[in-house]
């Protein structure tokens, strides 16, 4: 019933009503030897996982809760590029299917009108200098109304419906993501990261603006410049030094 016109992604596609987390299912499938491009989708997750051990609220029928198994022929240091690539695919989809103006907050949150509508969780299994597999988790708030969003995050999270005023067809939206993902991924494997980097910077949030950056060591003001080919964030200190950041929190305004 999915009728995907793709070459490799979703050739094996598993659709469940309810799961704990699609991430865990794909980890199991990876260990059973399921192929590159295997996709698991759920209508509802009761233990959805976000980054940094956070919860990801995944109510029944309201969003895209999906994990993709990838077996890229790459070293582990390139895994962050796949996350950034995925963010560009999601931003492109939103831009193509609506009049919304999506932005990517480094490294990989999709924002609309400054609110998060989508997040990506990349989990990797590596063996020495090769990626064994990646479980790429995509969570997208699609048809939630304001009341469906957890109150604790309602000020900074939203859904495509809330921002666009229209109900989205979830299956069509997934098909559109998978199609664009396949093309973009193939291009990346063939030609490298440069095109992805350009697209990422096109959608990049607060690029060119002054922000406050906190790392484990200190907090300072800087202007965001863009990303490095390895996925690091580039930020320029007020006295001119350019820093590469692999892990940091970005703040602005009073937030
Ligand atoms: C984030 O913290 O921004 C990442 C959220 C990722 C959520 C998705 S939903 C599908 C997959 N299964 C999970 O349990 N998490 C990811």
UniProtKB/TrEMBL annotation:
Gene Ontology cellular component annotations, sorted alphabetically: cytoplasm
Record-listed biotin binding positions: 45, 116
GO biological process, one term: regulation of DNA-templated transcription
Keyword match Transcription: yes
Domain (BPL/LPL catalytic): residue spans on this chain: 11-189
UniProt entry keywords in alphabetical sequence: ATP-binding, Biotin, DNA-binding, Ligase, Nucleotide-binding, Repressor, Transcription, Transcription regulation
Catalytic reactions on record: biotin + L-lysyl-[protein] + ATP = N(6)-biotinyl-L-lysyl-[protein] + AMP + diphosphate + H(+)
Source organism superkingdom: Bacteria
Enzyme Commission number, as recorded: 6.3.4.15
Entry similarity comment: Belongs to the biotin--protein ligase family.
Role: Acts both as a biotin--[acetyl-CoA-carboxylase] ligase and a repressor.
Name of the protein: Bifunctional ligase/repressor BirA
Organism placement in taxonomy: Bacteria, Bacillati, Bacillota, Bacilli, Bacillales
